[in-house]
């Protein structure tokens, strides 16, 4: 007896919402952190890379791929992307996010939005902006490290445990006075000290190491960094008078980087909780793409949506892991090298020149 014929059932496709034309700019910003023009700008950056080479009528468009990726970065929840009336299935969402992040994180794209000031004109402009904060002269950027929590990696797991005893990527970031990111390094495990990340970075080895920045312009960093002619740190035990005045102005000016990091993580909530993707190279792509998108938002004067305006379920908002309980044994910190005397002497001269009001 012949086997019964199998009848192929037609595939059912979910309707895909045309959010770019149906939602206002305000609604788009709530859900995707960019307005329509900004979303199209990002799409055009990678359109050729993410356009499907197929004639299928249901192929995911570049615009849809960017929307799905932005939704994930804004919320940190892949399930919100597939359940957001955009249409793609969960499997498609995962593939689309991977493809789009890879395209956006290419150096030729990132380099368009991270520009460190090296000309005299640009340095002067940055310094004027910073001096208006607390009267601290010659500052072109504030630098700090921030930890982005990740799931425990399968390889070299212990290296990713930071001093607060959770797994993370230690990200070095430099902000200007307008909270725009000038430089970002996102590739080091959480156990690596901020000073080592700086020492191995292009800022130290190329930008300042080769004298690309004019003399008299500096970064401000906390006491975890070595004091250099181009990197000024606070006094650990300041004397009353000029040193204390310097420390007060230094702290107020350096707060820019702390507030900037807060803005970045509030804008893209994927950085605020635990990033549950592997491998760690993909996590680093996420961090750099969020930083680039933050700068695009700054260029377009797009504000961070207020908490009550963010269109995502309250239960999906995770706590800041900086206050997480200690759960993993912390490896010992590496010995700290003595600070170069040259940088400390330069700082003393700088303080006497700019903060000694008796002269």
From TrEMBL:
GO terms for molecular function: hydrolase activity; metal ion binding; nuclease activity. It is found in: Cytoplasm; Nucleus. GO terms for cellular component: cytoplasm; nucleus. Transposase-derived protein that may have nuclease activity. Does not have transposase activity. Keywords: Cytoplasm, Hydrolase, Metal-binding, Nuclease, Nucleus. Residues 143-295 form the DDE Tnp4 domain. InterPro entries: HARBI1-like, HARBI1_animal, HARBI1_dom. The keyword Phosphoprotein does not apply. Its cofactor is a divalent metal cation. This is Putative nuclease HARBI1. It comes from the Eukaryota. PANTHER family: NUCLEASE HARBI1, PTHR22930. Belongs to the HARBI1 family.
